[in-house]
Design goal:
By secondary structure, the protein is an alpha/beta fold. The strands form 2 sheets. The protein has a 6-stranded parallel sheet with strand order 3-5-6-7-8-9. A 3-stranded parallel sheet has the order 1-2-4, with helices on both faces. It contains 9 helices and 9 strands. The chain is globular and about 55 Å long.
Length: 255
Amino acid sequence: MIDFHSHIVYGVDDGSQSLDSSIKILREAKEAGIDKIILTPHYMEDYYIVPKLEIKEKIDILREECKKEKIDIELYQGNEIYISNHIDEFLKKDLACSLNDSRYVLFETPLNIEPSNLIEVIYKIKEMGKVPVLAHPERYAFIQENPNKLLDLFEMGVLFQSNYGSVIGLYGKNAEKTIKLLLKNNYIHFLGSDVHRKGNVYPYINDAKNSIIKIIGQEKFDKISDKNILKVIKDEEIEKEQLHQIKISFFSKLF
C-alpha cells in the first residue's frame, strides 16, 4: 500500500515533533504494510510556513535514518495546503509543493465552514495546469450535510482523498457515515492515513482496510490504496469513473 497523506516530517507542523518520533511512525507504517509514503506537512498561510527546500532537507535526513534503521520505505515530498487565494503564489515561489512535484496538488478547507473562495482556489490551481485534490472531504461539515456538493467539484476537475481512520469512526459518526457513502458511489480516488503521531492511525490500518474492502471489493481497494497513488508519484493521468448524484434516504439522514 502507498500512503497518500501524512504528517511525519518532524518539527514543521502539528505532526511529528522530533526525528526520533518520525522514525517510530515510519516503523509503524512499515509494520502496517505501507511501502511508500507521500509526506504532506501542512502549509498554512501565516501559521505553518516551512518552505519546500527546508522540508526537503528534513526528508533527506529521514531517508538516511531509515537506511540506518533498516526501514525499507520510500518517501516522497508534498504538502497539504490550507485553502488560500494565494495558493498559486505558494506553488510558484516553492513555498509549498505539489505531490512529488507532479501535477497533483493536495489542499484542505476548514472543517466546519464552507469556504466562500473554494471555486476561485480550484480555478487558480487548474490555471497552473495542476489537478486539485481535496483532502478528506468526509470530515467537512458542509459535505456531511450534502455529499452531492462533491459532484460539482468533480465536474470541475477535483479529485478526492479519504482517510483510513474515517471508515472506522476515528473522526466521529458523521465522517464514518459520509465516507461509506462516498466509497459506495466511487467518489474516492485515493486513501491516506493523515497520520500525526505514533499510535495515531497505523495500528488500525488493517481494520480500516478490511472495512473498505467489504464496501468496494479488493480490486477497487487496490486502485485507491496503491495504483492511483503510484500514478500520482509518476505524474500520470488518473482514470476517472463518471460520478452520479448520491441518493440519500430520509433514514440515512437521521442515522
